Amino acid sequence: MRIIVSRLIQHSSSPFSRLHNVGLLRNVRLLSTDSNKVDEPFKVEEAETVQVPPPPSEKLLVLGGNGFVGSHVCREALSHGLSVCSLSRSGRSSIKEPWADKVVWHQGSLLVPDSLKDALNDVTAVVSCVGGFGSNSHMYKINGTANINAIRAAADQGVKRFVYISAADFGVANYLLQGYYEGKKAAEAELLSKFTYGGVILRPGFIHGTRQVGSMKIPLGIIGSPLEMVLQHAKPLNRLPLIGALFTPPVSASAVAKVAVRAATDPVFPPGIVDVYGILRYSDQK
Ligand SMILES: NC(=O)c1ccc[n+]([C@@H]2O[C@H](COP(=O)([O-])OP(=O)(O)OC[C@H]3O[C@@H](n4cnc5c(N)ncnc54)[C@H](OP(=O)(O)O)[C@@H]3O)[C@@H](O)[C@H]2O)c1
């Protein structure tokens, strides 16, 4: 949409136009310290319509925008009229839905220096959905090092807000997935130090929704939604040592995406950590 404003143009008045204006404005007397003097009224002779380009819209970079959570984030951001780009190793990947045509897909790895240079051009906010499983050292690299590289590059580029999809603390399970959690914690610490006022960490537990694997759609909501309904009211049980993690309610990928996009674009969204209950609460808000 273009914004139209009218610009007022002042001219030095000719004798003719002065007479004309006196006729028109004879009832307009302006205040003056000299009682005999009528101040020269401000004259508008002509209004020219000029077109001002719209203010630059927000540009969101979704790291891992072709993944399960990332694709929900891209869709959510597009529905708010944001301009969206994504970076991942495979670029666009297998997604063949109309929304995907509106995303600018960059191919690159966060573990390769310089990969982010082009993708970060004019970007105002970043949401990182990059993470994964594997050997301990791989998990540390992908959840930690890769995201730390992205956080540093975004900070250097002057990006205002950065949202990192981390994960809920699962107590004992953290030990079994050491590289995963240590990587997440290292990236969280980097984000809080580099984006003191614009860094938001989301810590979901299990995320449900429709996960696309190749051309197949897997409806994880069949398990996740009923559990979410029951467990969101079991917060006290979540504090029990050892079994607490079992009672962390799952959240939907669309709820995570909604909160991530809001956190990335709302300048008054509080920086810091948002746990599962915070995600459920924020995603319920209009
Ligand atoms: N799913 C859950 O239940 C759950 C629960 C809690 C937290 N989380 C966290 O939420 C985030 C998103 O999870 P998800 O389930 O959406 O995972 P996902 O589907 O596996 O997506 C991971 C994304 O990261 C990209 N990626 C991996 N390595 C990369 C690299 N070196 N450089 C650039 N991009 C890279 C992948 O694309 P390419 O392979 O094309 O590079 C993919 O787009 C992760 O951090 C995960 O730990 C997920």
Automatic annotation (TrEMBL):
Query: Which GO terms of the molecular function aspect are on file?
Result: protein-containing complex binding
What does UniProt give as GO cellular component? mitochondrion
Give one Pfam family.
Answer: NAD_binding_10
Q: Which residues form the NAD(P)-binding domain?
A: 64-208
Question: SUPFAM superfamilies attached here?
Answer: NAD(P)-binding Rossmann-fold domains
Name this polypeptide is given: NAD(P)-binding domain-containing protein
Give the originating organism.
Dioscorea zingiberensis
